[in-house]
Design goal:
Order of helices and strands of chain A: EHEHEEEHHHHHHEEHEEEEEEEHHH
Structural class of chain B: alpha+beta
Number of strands of chain B: 30
Distance between the termini of chain B: 63 Å
Strand order of the largest sheet of chain A: 4-5-10-8-9
CATH topology of the largest domain in chain B: Aldehyde Oxidoreductase, domain 4
Radius of gyration of chain A: 19 Å
CATH architecture of one domain in chain A: 2-Layer Sandwich
Strand order of the largest sheet of chain B: 3-5-1-14-11-12-13
Helix content of chain B: 25-40%
Structural class of chain A: alpha+beta
Strand content of chain A: 15-25%
Strand content of chain B: 25-35%
CATH topology of one domain in chain A: Enolase-like, domain 1
Shape of chain A: globular
Chains: A alpha+beta (about 325), B alpha+beta (about 725), C alpha+beta (about 220)
CATH superfamily of the largest domain in chain B: Aldehyde oxidase/xanthine dehydrogenase, molybdopterin binding domain
Distance between the termini of chain A: 47 Å
Oligomer: heterotrimer
C-alpha cells in the first residue's frame, strides 16, 4: 500500500471538495473491505483517501414519507440484516446480505461499497489493469477465465460485476443519489453500471469527485422477491452465478417480472427474455426453467466458463421458484 | 508380564495413556498468549520483504535499487544477481529491509529489475504439450501384465485420473527472525518442523560452526511438510542481518507463501486394470506423469496400498516445469497415488457390478501384511457409514436434482518414531521437566511427552513441565513422516523409567525394601501394591538432597516401544446437485489404526483435521497457473479456496485400539488419514452421478462437464 | 531470445517495474517526501476546511481493551499492523492480510471485524477489543476454555481469530444451533482442520456464558 493523505470530512459537500477530478488521484473510503485490499495489491494507488465515516448524513436505513426505503450509502450489511423494515418488506435484500458469509465483512462492509466495489478478476488484482491487457491484448479469452463473464463479454472487459445487492436492487427499481461539485443527482440503478472500454473508465456512472450518498428503493407493493446465489463453498466465497427476481402477481398469475443476474457480465445483467417468459404465466417448475433458459439464451461463454451458463440458468430458475414460493 | 525393562503399561494399568487428554498448550493458544515466530518483536528490528521474479523463467539483466535506498533506513541485499537464470515466478532476486514494515514494502515497490524473458512451462496435465520437458523413466515390470490383460475372461477397465497441484497454505507463513550477538552467534526464531536440524542448515549456508547457531520455535503455525529447511530466504536473511548489524524479521507475505513456499505435486495417469469375473484383481498397467518443478519430481507409489497385484507394468514421465519447487506435502505422493489407484479400482468394481465394499474386502489380501487390518477396518467403516442401507449401484437415479452416493478408499503409512534424545529431570523440590529439541506442529508433541512422563512417574499431567522448540536442547528428529509422537514418547518413556529407577534407589532405604519393590502411583512412591507403605512424591524427591536426577531418554533404545505400518479406511457420503454440479459432504467416516493410542483426544483431532484437509483438496484447492504470464493467479486465500466450517458435514472418527493394536506400540498418525479423502470423495461422486470426474478438485465445472457426457442427468 | 523489458505489472513479491506509470499525471498536490515517515502537520485542501492528515506519521489514539493508547502512525497503517508492530499485541495474527481468513479478528464496538481491513486512524474513538483482554486474572474466558476442552485448535495460529469470532457470534446469538454456528463463523478459516472442535466449543461456550461463567 502506498502512502496517502487522509481526510475525514463531516459533510458530503466537504467530501466532494476533497476529491480530485481525475480517477486514481483520490479514493473514497467507506467500509474498506475492498479498497484496502486493492491498495495492498497496488491495484489502486490513491494519493488521498477521503473517509466517509464522519458523515452522519450518509448513515442509516429508514422509510421515506413517499414510501421509498432510503439506505444510506454507509449503512453496513449488518445494519441491513438487523433492520426490521428491510426484513419485513425486502426479505431478498437480507438474503443478499447473508450471502456475504462473513460477519466480519457484514460489520464493516457498506451497501454503497458493495455497489462500488471493484471486480475480483485475478488478472486485475494481479496487476494487469482493469481490462487485463498485456501487450495490447486481453489475457482473459485465452487464459484462466473460469470465473469471468458469459454475457456482455465481447470485450475489452471480461470481468464480472461482483455486487451482492445490485441485481436485487435493480430488480426492485432502485435509484441511487449521487453528490458532486454541482450538487445532487439521481440515477436509476439499472443505468448506473456500465462496461468500461478503456483503463481510464470505471464500471459505474460516477465522476471521480462524486460520492454515492444513498440508495432509494421503491415500496415493493406486495411484490414477491428472491435472490439465489450458486457458491462453491458455504463459508465466505464469491458466487459463481446469481440471480435476483421480483414478481408482481395477480392471484397466481405473474403480471410483470424483473430478472437480473449477477456475476455473469461486467454489469449486473437484466434479462428481458426471462421477464417475457414469465409475464402472464403461473409459476411452475417448467415455467421457471423456461425463463432460466431464456435468461442465458444469448450467452457466449469463454474457453473455460461454459459451466456458468448452466449455473446462471439454474440460479434464475431457483430465484423465480423461491420468489413465487415466498410470501 | 513385561518382558523388557522399557515397556508400555498394560491395559488396565494406564492412568493417562489412551485417555482423552486436553493438549497442554491449549490455554496458551486459545488465549492468544502463545508466541509464534511471526510474533517475535526485538529491539531495533528491521522488517524485510522479498522481491521476487515476475517471470517464471528469465535471466536477470539489471538491478537498480537506487530509488529504494533513498527511503529512510532502507537496506538492500541481493540474492540472485545479474546473470542469474530464474526458474519460477516469485524466485527471490533480492531482499529489502526497513525499520517500518510499510517502508519495507515501499522499498520493494521501488526496486527496478530487468529480465531477459525465457520460455516457460507451467501446465503439465496435457502431456502432448510439454515438448522436451517430459523425461520418461524406465518401465517397471512385475509378472506379466500383457498376458493377464489378454486373458479372455478378464474384465478390463481403462481410465484417466489425476490430482491438480495444490499448496500447503500454512496459516503462519514461512519465515524467521534472525539476530546476531556481538560475538558472532546467530539466534533465529524460525517457523520450522526441524528445530534440531536447523542450526546445520544455517551453519552450512553461512560458513560458521554449528555451535554458533541457536534456533527457537516456541510455537509454529503449521508446516504439513513444507518447513524442513532454512530455505534460501532464511539463510540470505541471516547474511543480510549480519551485514546491517540489526535483527531482521522476514515472514513471507501470503502471495509468496502460496507461490513458492510449498506445493504438492500434481499426478496424472492413464490406468488399465483387470480382474477375474469374481472380482479378483489380476493386472495393473499405468502411464503416469507429474512435475516436481524444475527437477521433474518423483514417481507415485503405484499401484497404491493394494500393491501386491501380481502383474504390474508401469511407466512414468517426469515433467520439468516453471511452477516452483514442490515440497513434501503431508504423506508425500500418497493422496495422489490413492486417487490414481483407488478410483481406477472403484471403476473396475462398477464394471464388475460389484459393491465396492465387497470388492475391496475380496482384494484386501493384495495389501500384504496390512490385509487383515484392512478387512477389519472395512467392516467397521461399513458399519459406521450405514453402507449396507445407503449404498446403491452406481448412478441409480433418484427423484429431484440431488443425487447421493457413497465411496471408499484405503491407505497405509509407515510412521516409525524418529531418532530423539531428551532429558528427564526430577528436582529435589519435586518438579519434573522433560526437555528435547523437538517441535509441536499442532499435533500434540508437548502433550504426549507430558502424559508419558506423568504416566511413568505416577504424576498428573500438570506436574510435568515440557520444554521443546529450542536447538540448544538435546537433538530430536524433524517432524516428518509421522515420526514425532513415536520418537518423543519412547524417548520420554525410557528416560522417565531410568529417572524413576534413580528415585526409587534414593527412597528405598527409608521404606525398607529394595528399589525394585517400589512403584510410582498417584503422586506417591510406594511398596508395590501397598499404599500404606509410601512416601509422597515431594517427600521422595526431598531425599535427593542437592542432586537433581537427570536421565537421558533416547529413541531408538533398548526394548521395542514403537513400530511401523498403519492402515486406514475411509468412507465418503456425498450429495451432488446435478443442476449446479455442487458437491456437498454429508458425512465422512475415518477408521484408523496407529498402534497404541497415547492421547485419544488429540489422535482423533489428527483424523478430523485430515478429513477436513482432504475435503478441502478434494473439492476446492488448486494453484491456478496462467499460461501467458507463468504466474499463479490465486496467491491469496480468496481464490485459493480452503473449506470452511460449513463445508465439512458430519465427521466420524474411529480409532482401532485394544488387542491386536495396542501391543504394536506407538506409531505415527499425522499423515495417514489425509491420504484417502480425495479417492473416497471422488468414488462417492461417481457413485452418486454414475460418471467419473477424472481429476480432483471436483469443481462444479467438472461435474457439469462430466454430466453432459453421461451419468444420471 | 530478445531482451525484453517487463511490461507486466505487479509480480508476486512486489517487485514492480511499470506500476508507477499508473501514478503519472498527478493532480493532487502532495509533498515530495510522502513516504518519508516523518510526522506531517495537518493542513486543508483548497476550499475545504477538513484537515488533511499525513501521508507522514500523525498522532493516533486507540482505545484498546478499555485503555487509550496514543501512537504516531502513518494513516495507511492498518489496525492489525498497529496492534502487532507498535503495541506488541500479537494475539491477532496476520495470515491473508486481505480480509478473507479471519485470523486477525478483533471486536470493534461489539462487532467482529478483520483488523487487516481497518485503518488504525479509522478505529479512533471506537472500542477495540482484542483477545488479550479475554483472560482475566489468569482465568480463561469460557470461549477459550471450551476451545481447550474440545481441542478446537492444533497449530493454533487461526485460534485467536476464531475465539474472537465465536465470542462476537455468541454475544449476538446467545442460543446458537449447529447450523447457525456454521453460518456465523463463515468468515474464518483453519488449515489444520479444527472445525469439528470449534463447532462443539461454540455450542458449549454458549451454555457456559449463560451459566454465568462470563469473564468480560
Amino acid at each position: 500500500m502506498e502512502a496517502f493523505e487522509y481526510a475525514r470530512p463531516t459533510s458530503k459537500e466537504e467530501a466532494v471538495k476533497l476529491l480530485a477530478g481525475t480517477w486514481g488521484e483520490t479514493e473514497v473510503l467507506a467500509g474498506g473491505t475492498d479498497l484496502l485490499s486493492l491498495m495492498k495489491d497496488y491495484a489502486s494507488n490513491p494519493k488521498r483517501l477521503v473517509s466517509l465515516s464522519g458523515i452522519a448524513a450518509l448513515k442509516g436505513i429508514s422509510s421515506q414519507p413517499d414510501g421509498d426505503l432510503r439506505i444510506g450509502a454507509t449503512a453496513t450489511l449488518q445494519e441491513l440484516i438487523a433492520s426490521p423494515i428491510v426484513a419485513k418488506q425486502y426479505p431478498a435484500l437480507v438474503e443478499a446480505a447473508h450471502g456475504v458469509r462473513s460477519p466480519q465483512i457484514q460489520s464493516l462492509g457498506t451497501v454503497g461499497g458493495d455497489l462500488l466495489q471493484r471486480p475480483r478478476c485475478w488478472y486485475y488484482r494481479g496487476g494487469h489493469g482493469l481490462l487485463a491487457q498485456h501487450d495490447g491484448k486481453s489475457l482473459v479469452p485465452d487464459g484462466e477465465n473460469q470465473y469471468h463473464a458469459i454475457l456482455g463479454n465481447s470485450g475489452p472487459a471480461y470481468f464480472v460485476n461482483p455486487s451482492s445487492f445490485a441485481p436485487i436492487l435493480i430488480a426492485l427499481g432502485a435509484k441511487v443519489r449521487v453528490h458532486g461539485p454541482s450538487g445532487a443527482r439521481e440515477v436509476e440503478l439499472s443505468k448506473f453500471f456500465r462496461t468500461p472500454s478503456s483503463e481510464s473508465e470505471r464500471e459505474y456512472d460516477l465522476k471521480p469527485n462524486e460520492i454515492l450518498t444513498e440508495i432509494l428503493v421503491p415500496a415493493p407493493g406486495g411484490a414477491k422477491m428472491a435472490v439465489y446465489e450458486v457458491r462453491e463453498k458455504e463459508a465466505l466465497d464469491w458466487p459463481l452465478a446469481a440471480a435476483a427476481v421480483v414478481l408482481n402477481t395477480s392471484g397466481k398469475t405473474v403480471k410483470s417480472a424483473r430478472v437480473v443476474m449477477g456475476h455473469v457480465a461486467p454489469i449486473p445483467w437484466p434479462s428481458p427474455e426471462a421477464e417475457a417468459a414469465l409475464a402472464g404465466k403461473t409459476i411452475s417448475e417448467s415455467v421457471a426453467d423456461e425463463a432460466g433458459k431464456a435468461a442465458v439464451a444469448k450467452a457466449t461463454p469463454l474457453s473455460k466458463n461454459a459451466y456458468k451458463v448452466q449455473l446462471a440458468r439454474v440460479a434464475t430458475k431457483r430465484a423465480i421458484l423461491a420468489a413465487a414460493g415466498g410470501a | 508380564m513385561p518382558s523388557c525393562k522399557y515397556d508400555w503399561p498394560a491395559a488396565g494399568q494406564r492412568k493417562h495413556i489412551g485417555k482423552r487428554i486436553s493438549r497442554i498448550d491449549g490455554p496458551d493458544k486459545s488465549s492468544g498468549r502463545a508466541k509464534y515466530t511471526y510474533d517475535v518483536n526485538r529491539p531495533g528490528i528491521l522488517f524485510a520483504k522479498v522481491v521476487g521474479s515476475p517471470y517464471a523463467h528469465a535471466k536477470v539483466t539489471s538491478i537498480d535499487t537506487s530509488e529504494a535506498e533513498k527511503l529512510p533506513g532502507v537496506k538492500v541485499h541481493i540474492v540472485q544477481g545479474v546473470g542469474t537464470e530464474i526458474h519460477w515466478a516469485g524466485s527471490e532476486i533480492l531482499l529489502v529491509a526497513a525499520p517500518a514494515e510499510e517502508v519495507a514494502r515501499d522499498a520493494a515497490q521501488r526496486v527496478k529489475i530487468d529480465f531477459e524473458v525465457l520460455p516457460h512451462l507451467v501446465h503439465e496435465e496435457d502431456l502432448s504439450k510439454v515438448g522436451d520437458r517430459g523425461k520418461p523413466t524406465a518401465e517397471q515390470k512385475t509378472g506379466d501384465a500383457a498376458a493377464a490383460f489378454s486373458d479372455p475372461d478378464a474384465v478390463i477397465h481403462e481410465g484417466y485420473y489425476g490430482s491438480a497441484i495444490i499448496a500447503h497454505c500454512c496459516m503462519e507463513p514461512h519465515g524467521q527472525v534472525v539476530e546476531w550477538t556481538p560475538d558472532g552467534n546467530l539466534r533465529a526464531w524460525e517457523s520450522t518442523q526441524n528445530v534440531s536440524g536447523m542450526p546445520k542448515e544455517y551453519a552450512d549456508a553461512l560458513g560458521i560452526p554449528v555451535t554458533n547457531v541457536r534456533v527457537m520455535t516456541p510455537h509454529m503455525g503449521g508446516g504439513f511438510g513444507s518447513k524442513f529447511g532454512a530455505d534460501r530466504w532464511g539463510s540470505e536473511c541471516a547474511k543480510f542481518s549480519k551485514a546491517v548489524g540489526k535483527p531482521i524479521k522476514m515472514m513471507l507475505e501470503r502471495d509468496l507463501e502460496l507461490v513458492m513456499a510449498g506445493a504438492r505435486p500434481p499426478h496424472y495417469a492413464k490406468v488399465k486394470v483387470a480382474a477375474k469375473k469374481d472380482g479378483t484383481v489380476t493386472a495393473w498397467e499405468s502411464d503416469s506423469w507429474s512435475t516436481g518443478g524444475p527437477t521433474g519430481g518423483g514417481i507415485p507409489p503405484l499401484p497404491y496400498a493394494l500393491n501386491d497385484i501380481p502383474n504390474v507394468t508401469k511407466r512414468h514421465t517426469a515433467v520439468a516445469t516453471n511452477i516452483g519447487p514442490i515440497r513434501a506435502w503431508r504423506a508425500p505422493n500418497h493422496p495422489q497415488a490413492a486417487v490414481l489407484t483407488l478410483c481406477a479400482l472403484d471403476d473396475l468394481a462398477a464394471k464388475l457390478n460389484m459393491d465396492p465394499m465387497d470388492f475391496f474386502q475380496k482384494n484386501a489380501g493384495l495389501g500384504g501384511e496390512r490385509a487383515d487390518m484392512y478387512r477389519q477396518e472395512l467392516t467397521k467403516a461399513a458399519e459406521l457409514s450405514d453402507w449396507k442401507k445407503l449404498w446403491h449401484p452406481r448412478g441409480t437415479k433418484i427423484a429431484g436434482n440431488v443425487e447421493r452416493g457413497l465411496g471408499l478408499s484405503l491407505h497405509t503409512w509407515g510412521g516409525r518414531g524418529h531418532n530423539s534424545r531428551g532429558t528427564v529431570t526430577i528436582n529435589p523440590d519435586g518438579s519434573v521437566e522433560v526437555a528435547a529439541g523437538s517441535q509441536d506442529l499442532g499435533t500434540g508433541t508437548r502433550t504426549v511427552i507430558a502424559l508419558t512422563a506423568a504416566e511413568t512417574l505416577g504424576l498428573e499431567i500438570k506436574d510435568i513441565k515440557v520444554s521443546i522448540g529450542d536447538s540448544a536442547l538435546l537433538p530430536s528428529g524433524a517432524s516428518g513422516g509421522s515420526t514425532t509422537v513415536g520418537g518423543v514418547s519412547s524417548m520420554t518413556r525410557r528416560g522417565a523409567i531410568d529417572a524413576r529407577e534413580q528415585l526409587f534407589a534414593a527412597v528405598a532405604p527409608s521404606l525398607g525394601v529394595p528399589p525394585d519393590q517400589l512403584e510410582a502411583v498417584d503422586g506417591k512412591i510406594q511398596v508395590k501394591g501397598s499404599a500404606a507403605k509410601s512416601v509422597s512424591w515431594k517427600q521422595a524427591c526431598a531425599k535427593l538432597g542437592m542432586n537433581s536426577i537427570k536421565a537421558e531418554g533416547k529413541n531408538p533404545g533398548p526394548c521395542e516401544l514403537i513400530s511401523s505400518g498403519v492402515g486406514g479406511v475411509q468412507v465418503a457420503d456425498v450429495s451432488v446437485d446435478i443442476e449446479t454440479g455442487l458437491v456437498k459432504i454429508n458425512k465422512m467416516v475415518a477408521v484408523q489404526d496407529c498402534g497404541l493410542v497415547l492421547d485419544l483426544k488429540t489422535a482423533e483431532s489428527q483424523c478430523y483435521g485430515a478429513l477436513i484437509m482432504g475435503i478441502s483438496y478434494a473439492l476446492h484447492e488448486e494453484k491456478i497457473m496462467d499460461n501467458a504470464t507463468g504466474r499463479m493467479l490465486n496467491p491469496n486465500m480468496e481464490f485459493y479456496k480452503l473449506a470452511g466450517i460449513g463445508d465439512i458435514g458430519e465427521l466420524v472418527v474411529h480409532m482401532m485400539t485394544g488387542p491386536g493394536y495396542d501391543e504394536r506400540g506407538v506409531i505415527g498418525l499425522g499423515e495417514p488419514p489425509v491420504i484417502s479423502p480425495g479417492a473416497a470423495i471422488s468414488n462417492a461422486v461417481a457413485n452418486a452421478i454414475g460418471v467419473r470426474i477424472p481429476t480432483i478438485p471436483i469443481t462444479p465445472a467438472k461435474v457439469l462437464a462430466a454430466l453432459e457426457k453421461g451419468g444420471v442427468a | 531470445m530478445s531482451r525484453k523489458k517487463d511490461k507486466l505489472a505487479r509480480p508476486p513479491g512486489r517487485g514492480s517495474v511499470s506500476r508507477r506509470d499508473f501514478l503519472r499525471g498527478a493532480g493532487v498536490a502532495v509533498s515530495g517526501g510522502l513516504i518519508a515517515g516523518e510526522t506531517t502537520k495537518a493542513r486543508a485542501a483548497a476550499g475545504a476546511t477538513t484537515p488533511i492528515l499525513g501521508p507522514g506519521k500523525v498522532p493516533i489514539t486507540l482505545r484498546i481493551n478499555g485503555k487509550p493508547q496514543t501512537l504516531e502512525l502513518e494513516p495507511r497503517v492498518t489496525l492489525l499492523d498497529a496492534l502487532r508492530n507498535h503495541l506488541d499485541l500479537t494475539g491477532a495474527k496476520n495470515v491473508c492480510d486481505r480480509g478473507t481468513c479471519g485470523a486477525c479478528t478483533v471486536i470493534l464496538d461489539g462487532d467482529p471485524v478483520y483488523a487487516c481491513n481497518v485503518l488504525a486512524i479509522e478505529a479512533q474513538g471506537r472500542n477495540i477489543q482484542t483477545i488479550e483482554s479475554l483472560t482475566v486474572g489468569g482465568k480463561l474466558h469460557p470461549v477459550s476454555a471450551a476451545f481447550v476442552e474440545h481441542d478446537a485448535q492444533q497449530c493454533g495460529f487461526c485460534t485467536p481469530g476464531f475465539v474472537m469470532a465465536v465470542k462476537a457470534f455468541l454475544d449476538h446469538h446467545p442460543n446458537p444451533t449447529m447450523e447457525s454456528v456454521e453460518k456465523g463463523l463463515g468468515g474464518n478459516l483453519c488449515r489444520c482442520g479444527t472445525y469439528v472442535g470449534i463447532r462443539k466449543a461454540a455450542l458449549q461456550a454458549a451454555k457456559s456464558v449463560k451459566g454465568g461463567l462470563h469473564n468480560a
